[in-house]
Amino acid sequence: MILYIRLLKESFAFAINALKSNKLRTLLSLLGVTVGIFSIIAVLAAVDSMKKNIVDSLDGMDRNTIYLFDGSFGPTDVPRWKKEQFPNVNYEEFQFLKKSVNNIDKISYNFFTQSQSIKFEDNTVNSIEIKLSTEEFFEIEPFKVEKGRLFNEAESNSGTSVIVLGNEVAEGLFNGNEAIGKQIRLYGQKYTVIGVLKKMGENMIGGSNDVAVFIPVNNIRKLYGENSNLFKPIIIIKPKSDVDVEEFKAELANKLRNYRGIKPDDINNFFVNILSGFTDFIDDIVGQMNIFGWMISGFSLLVGGFGIANIMFVSVKERTNLIGIQKALGAKNKFILFQFLFEAVILAMFGGLFGIVLVWIIAMILTSALDFEFVLSAFNILLGSGLSVLIGLISGILPAISASKLDPVEAIRTGM
């Protein structure tokens, strides 16, 4: 055992000296592996970062939350022309489902709409996300109030002209002054501010509640009616925690089919979208991106591997005479094999290390510049290191074997 440890130590030292004596060649050999490892780890880190930000943005929301409307979160077999004929869900259907479907924890009626500008005296804040809902929506999504309160059931049902502001909207309109009780203008109407939310940060599936305002949906229904092209009605449902979600979806669909009078042979003219289905869809996209990244990066690694193999063959040829002398002095084939194999592995490891460090530097810069957290996980670091070693072994094995099998007499004669 001690003999093998000594052999490994001497082979390692010999390889390091060989790399030091050919600095330019070593640097050029590193570049191929560096680019390859950088490509793979950069893609994996970007995909992991995207997935983490999506998961964080869904944190606090029930993954079984259902979005009922005429659109689908993911791919569907229903033709586009047929989907365009589907009717919108409406407030009467919301009330019917609220009363008739079992095991509903919370249910909310919402309008999704375009961004708007909002004004208070001479101050205007643009591109504000308008969230129109019944009061139950505040119990489906997580909200924290900094000042004031959220609108209640009575205000929701009557469509009172009240508004709750996101943190950045309140700051933009009032510059740190008191917002509660003030009246702002939106849709040509005056709304009384009753609450300001705590700062929540950005997410990747619906902007940020910091730049949103919340109004009772019935207020807008009174102004624009149910069928305005400006608004997309959606019913959001949170089932009870102990319910079988598939059975719940089936009951929900059957109730709405009966209410709409859909014939048994006809397809649903609505979609029951579940939030976990959206995350599964995201996982599929992430998986495809990973595969695509591996395919592209694989070519870079292949080029890097060929570069190391080529350099190692050149190194064997240059040191043929030295190999012959070593073997004539009693060096074993294993010593020669390990000597060149270590050289190839060290080359690849340094290349991989540079690639990982480069990804880390770029991730830090982008995180600071874009306000988006890029993640370089320990798994990706270990993966990059492991791939580097593997590339070194594969690229160096043939040159190392050819060096170890040289005849000492022929090697000395060839090198002279």
From TrEMBL:
Pfam families for this protein: FtsX (PF02687), MacB_PCD (PF12704)
Topology within the bilayer: Multi-pass membrane protein
Keywords: Cell membrane, Membrane, Transmembrane, Transmembrane helix
Keyword Membrane carried by entry: yes
Record keyword Cell membrane present: yes
Domain ABC3 transporter permease C-terminal positions: 295-408
Domain MacB-like periplasmic core: 26-254
Transmembrane segments: 27-47, 291-314, 335-362, 374-398
Main location: membrane
Entry-linked InterPro entries: ABC3_permease_C (IPR003838), MacB_PCD (IPR025857), Macrolide_Exporter_MacB (IPR050250)
Subcellular location: Cell membrane
Similarity annotation: Belongs to the ABC-4 integral membrane protein family.
Protein name: FtsX-like permease family protein
Higher taxonomy: Bacteria, Pseudomonadati, Bacteroidota, Flavobacteriia, Flavobacteriales
